[in-house]
Amino acid sequence: MVRTSDIDQVSAQQGVPVRLVVGATLTSLTVIRSLVESVLLTEDFSITDVADVLLGVDEIATQIITRSHDTDVVECSLLAGPAGVAVQMRGVLRSGLTISTDGFGWHVVRSVADSVTIDMAGVAPDRQVLVRLAKVRSIETDSDAPSP
Prior knowledge:
By secondary structure, this protein is α+β, with helices and mostly antiparallel strands. The protein has four helices and five strands.
């Protein structure tokens, strides 16, 4: 299991992340997905890694968006490099709401990521949330390569 401190160290070595800020609406999910997919494919991640990160980011973004006001924003920060990828999703949750870690969707997030953390800050009525997801780059074997 990768520790969050390991990801912090990798992030510090790899430079400036790609950041996207969009309105907290479900139609913004397409933009978030496109950014994540584009960055990971550009950085030559495997299709499996891209799919895993997309699943995790989609669940996290959906939870933040559905628990936010329509006037709020969601920020996606993505740092990809040779060691792996670190994603941070930030938003504001409406009063009394939290990220659900009990359902199937969160089980998927934990399954596809090497590390996931949730940090909450602030007091009622609305609270800031930061969800961090990290995935170490998979090492492809000959059996992963397409056949000629």
